[in-house]
Amino acid sequence: MITSHWESSNRSGPNLIRIEDKRFKYLVGKNQKDEGYFLIWNGGNAVGSLTVDSYNNVLQEARKASVKAPYHVYARYEEYQSKNVIFYKIPDKILAHLGLNESSDRYNEED
Question: What's the CA gap between 39 and 49, in Å, rounded?
């Protein structure tokens, strides 16, 4: 999902470095500048939101992984804003592909 939404200016450059470490709930990658990429998603049962709590988790994971701001955060909703975050709304098309739409119970569950 994140690589499909990768900035067009970086498409010809090196790809994201994927991070698959069970210590991290949201951190999924970093770029060549060591900027962190985070996906606020709680598995198949809940569409995530960037809230104060999830932002604090992003900060903790960023410190632990030594990634730098700006933090690229993908989530369904942005309930909290920070100058350290570039927010990307998860597109409806991707949610529909995952079987999540506004009428489904899973779509409307909280984090």
Answer: 10
Residue 66: the pLDDT is 97
10-residue block means of pLDDT along the chain (111 residues)? 57 73 93 91 74 97 97 92 93 72 49 40
The DSSP secondary structure of the chain, one letter per residue, reads -TGGG--GGGTTSPPPEE---TT-SSEEEE-TT-EEEEE-B-GGG-B-EE-HHHHHHHHHHHHHHT-EEEEEEEESEE-S--TTEEEEEPPHHHHHHTT--TTSTGGG---
Residue type (1 letter), 108: N
Q: What radius of gyration do the chain's Cα atoms show?
A: 14
